[in-house]
Amino acid sequence: MSDLLIPRTPSAYDYPLLIKNMLLYPVVDNPNQEIVYRDLYRGNYRQLRERVARAASMLTSLGVRPGQTVAVMDWDSHRYLELFFAVPMIGAVLHTINVRLSPEQILYTIDHAEDDVLLVNAEFLPILEQIRGRIDNVRTYILISDEEAKDDDTVPFAGEYEELLAKAAPVFDFPDLDENTRATTFYTTGTTGMPKGVYFSHRQLVLHTMALMTTLGTATAHGCLHRDDVYMPITPMFHVHAWGVPYIATMMGLKQVYPGRYLPETLLELKEKEGATFSHCVPTILHMMLKHPHAARMDLSGWKLIIGGAALSRNLCVEALKAGMDVFTGYGMSETCPILTISQLTPEMLELSHAEQADIRCKTGLTLPLVDLRVVDAELNELPRDGVSAGNVVVRSPWLTQGYLKDHKASERLWVGGYLHTGDVAVRDELGYLRITDRSKDVIKVAGEWVSSLELEDIIAHHPAVAEVAVIGKADEKWGERPLALVVPKPSVKITEKDISHHVRQYADKGVVSKQVVLVKVKFVDAIDKTSVGKINKVALRVKYLG
Amino acid sequence: MSDLLIPRTPSAYDYPLLIKNMLLYPVVDNPNQEIVYRDLYRGNYRQLRERVARAASMLTSLGVRPGQTVAVMDWDSHRYLELFFAVPMIGAVLHTINVRLSPEQILYTIDHAEDDVLLVNAEFLPILEQIRGRIDNVRTYILISDEEAKDDDTVPFAGEYEELLAKAAPVFDFPDLDENTRATTFYTTGTTGMPKGVYFSHRQLVLHTMALMTTLGTATAHGCLHRDDVYMPITPMFHVHAWGVPYIATMMGLKQVYPGRYLPETLLELKEKEGATFSHCVPTILHMMLKHPHAARMDLSGWKLIIGGAALSRNLCVEALKAGMDVFTGYGMSETCPILTISQLTPEMLELSHAEQADIRCKTGLTLPLVDLRVVDAELNELPRDGVSAGNVVVRSPWLTQGYLKDHKASERLWVGGYLHTGDVAVRDELGYLRITDRSKDVIKVAGEWVSSLELEDIIAHHPAVAEVAVIGKADEKWGERPLALVVPKPSVKITEKDISHHVRQYADKGVVSKQVVLVKVKFVDAIDKTSVGKINKVALRVKYLG
């Protein structure tokens, strides 16, 4: 085999794909391009370079060595961006801690990831104080503070980030690394069991960046990211690298705006003041922004938003389109770096009405280049691309976690048969557009037929009196399982189980959904349990309402 | 070290960067998108997929095995595009023969590359007939013909391409390969010695494609390639993969138009008829197209052209801009896959006059992502980015030939010190724009000072009576070397050596160029010798006028 490979003369440089090389693009050396953090920091790209070098010097002088893990608890900030580069570039692993987990879960991930250093925003000191006595592995704590550095007797901080940076050397000779060196790690907020650690290499992050950049770049008018855009993340940087877009924005030399904690008012103010044109968020935040009083008097047109993390409903999509926003779905998960598909529209599709466009924009979309995504049966045979054959979504691409950290069994389950199993069920149409119909473990089997809880949720959500809904499967002697709809009614509206049943039956009668749905039972509730990232927590709901 | 790398669970798929994976993008499965060859073929992307599979079946059934070499002699065609994919995808090596070389040189490259199969367009049979008796290694000949298949007794063809394709199986299970498998090879048309073979792996071609796609994609209004563009190559496919753009165009699902042999009239007709909006060519072809009578009555506006292979002159650039074309320079060479830099302009620069823009568009431009290009002194120290410090251009990127085929000495010279030496001399400005000032071997040393022959050629070309000019160094007892300008005057114009000297002196007097240039001697000639790719052949000129 080896004589088939390209010969390399001894002096030739065999170029590895490293995060440091993403900074080689000349636009990354632009002193006039801004990086903004709320109203607290306004720097440029030359400063970014220098601050990345200073952060590397700081960490090294605190004893951080290749292979060690540096953990961060912060909201979205210029500091986080600097650490996205500096930590992997010295050969260490960046652990982006999900600050929305419970203190016990955070403790678990700090311990499991074997963090050596922890940078923590002062805002999270109350959490840290609850668990610090039980943290064994962290050697060094660094305080992050937006205000004057605090005195905190309970944690022996090596110093405050800005102060340490000011003292650190402004240049750093970043080493060459094996491109398969681990660069980042973080924990999935699965709905079952303890969080699981995923991890990504330098090569994987470079390739994810390049592929997403080509997908967004080559689009002409909609769903595009070009060099005149202004970027503001609205998916946390601790959550799957903020979908990888901070790396792209940096490589493109875009103006970047970091909003700290996500408060709808702050987000809208920053959008207006700094001219953000490209963001990404979960439907909940989009909903909150659209409902905020500021939104009504603002010009939101041309704001491009990738929506992901949960299904975008047609209603919300149409509402956003009416406001002039360019919303479109992205699909992926913690295990996949994350982006696998984007629902960009063709020029012909852009001629359609908002409602018709929403049908496409709410689909999961087309795969990125190099993504080998298949909808398969139980034997991994690909199903027809006919828009109706539903199957499990499995995938190969250059940027998938190669296992779960220190969990051989779950790793093998994830990769059984050589494909990563997303756990999602989907159909694919002739043009290749994917539409997720369910989580495989969420499917409800009624009278021997699959009923999609997502589809049923979508139907019930269309009822004008329904604020929120979740559907789970309830064991039934006669039918095997029956769907149980947990419904939060809108305030001061009257609604009965009969209204819902009648509403659902109309869809079944029209044949747009299998007739098993009429077996739905309804329970009115005050609220629906969510996971730390805002997804419906079906596990908790099952315990609560079926247990 | 290995514990720093990402762990891989046994079942995980370690995704290689392979040419076959560039076809995974769903837009590559579009039955409505066209691939056109002159007025002789009009197919779509589904047919491309099938024809690639058929070509693979055909080659395999003719006995082609991984590691063997398949050579092609054809003009730009849909067939060549199919072979760009099919040959590497079966693990074989695609040798793109430069049909502009002399028959003896072609024989040398067929022999040196150890070609096993040769596909040859009927147009080149006269060349083949001259050398076939001396070809030892080729086992199988395949005829390519735009007309009815010919009977040719002198070459024992296995068949004609279309006929063999029709008989071959329409599906092929393309194997996974090591990403460092050799995919392509071809020969540099250097001006010294015999042609040298360069070679590129699957990984290198995928990464070159992705990087060029991000550079062209993320541009907003000028110098961009988006999904609504129509591509027509005007740099031969045998010349450094037509700059890699056929791979990009395919991955983007663009309409593609292949023009066969480059005749200005055909090119302009195809541009108009098929709506081409993106091309690339050498200055000579741009010049020929602009001067063609068709051009005057055509709308050339919005036609994006990367110009490379030779320096774009300011005059030609301004002329193209006036015609509404978006011309900009690309830089690279056979050894570099080829693209290293592109001279895209910022929105502010696009506000400048044509003449001012031309200054930037004729520069060599900014590097692509992941390209580590340096202007260095003899000790490989980087020179200041001040727009005046001239030095050697050395480079690292993920897509550089790792040596010359079977030439250890030249390979080590190319890569001395771990950087690929381009042999070019350049300056770089504060924004990172590179400007090639000379070939290092072309510099003329006058009275101890370097004189750039390119600069002097540029000055003399500005004289209204000069049609073409080449400058070489002539040994001189007093000055060491003096520039000798070989000048082709415009027809029916009177011009003397004194006119040229006076013209040159004006530039020296203004201080825009070192005063040594006034020592230029002038010789009026009828034509200037060119290499097979249209560059000035300084070696031949030196032999002719100094020998």
Which keywords apply here?
547 residues; Fatty acid--CoA ligase (chains A, B); 7-stranded mixed sheet; AMP-dep_synth/lig_dom (chains A, B); 5-stranded mixed sheet; 25 strands; 16 helices; alpha/beta; lipid metabolism (chains A, B); homodimer
Let me know the largest β-sheet of chain A. Answer: 7 strands, mixed
The total count of helices of chain A amounts to: 16
Low-confidence stretches of chain A: none
How many runs of DSSP E, i.e. beta strands of chain A? 25
Q: Please compute the radius of gyration of chain A using only Cα atoms.
A: 24 Å
Question: What general outline of chain A do the C-alpha atoms trace?
Answer: globular
Description:
Two copies of one chain form a homodimer. The first copy, chain A, has 547 residues and is of the alpha/beta class. Helix content of chain A is 29%, strand content 23%. Chain A contains 16 helices and 25 strands. In chain A, strands 7-6-5-3-4-8-9 form a seven-stranded mixed beta sheet, sandwiched between helices. In chain A, helix 11 links the parallel strand 13 (304-307) and strand 14 (326-332). The longest helix of chain A has 17 residues, at 45-61. The radius of gyration of chain A is 24 Å and the shape is globular. Chain A starts with 33 loop residues before the first strand and ends with a helix. In chain A, 51% of the residues are buried. The model of chain A has no long low-confidence stretch (mean pLDDT 92). Chains A and B meet through strand 9, helix 6, strand 16 and helix 13 of A and strand 9, helix 6, strand 16 and helix 13 of B. Chains A, B: InterPro entries: AMP-bd_C, AMP-bd_C_sf, AMP-dep_synth/lig_dom, ANL_N_sf. Chains A, B: It comes from Geomonas anaerohicana.
